[in-house]
Amino acid sequence: AYFLLCLLSLVFSAILFRGMDEYNAMFVAVATIVGLVTASFYGWLPLYLPEIFPTRVRATGQGIAFNSGRVLAAAGALTTGWLMQAFDGSYPRACATITLVYVIGMVLIWLAPETKGKPLPE
């Protein structure tokens, strides 16, 4: 599921940032799809994270996982400004480049432990 979310986010973000240059119904439709797919990560993480941490550190593990994502998101926002400068002020190119973070997610998910059918760690 996570791999699919990353793939869909990557594809539709690329369409939005690289293929849309005017505001019309298609732009709104693609932006809506990007929003829905990207927001789906917030439904997936709370289900998966408790399954990989033992009870005694579950809340701490989830807190670190969620907040490290916030730190990385801040780094991404700061990187976008540098990319815009590198791409001669092209916001679409900078944003399309930032969406490559989904490729990292698609690779890293293969390193995550499988929890399906396993009891919660004590």
Describe the structure.
With 122 residues, the protein is mostly helical. The chain has one domain. 74% of the residues lie in helices and 0% in strands. It contains six helices and no strands. The radius of gyration is 17 Å and the shape is elongated.
| Total separate domains | 1
- The proportion of residues forming helix, as a percent range, comes to over 70%
Q: What coarse outline follows from CA principal-axis ratios?
A: elongated
Low-pLDDT stretches are none
Radius of gyration: 17 Å
On the 0 to 100 scale, the average pLDDT is 89
What's the helix count? 6
Structural class, please? mainly alpha
List SSEs in N-to-C order: HHHHHH
Question: Span between N and C termini?
Answer: 25 Å
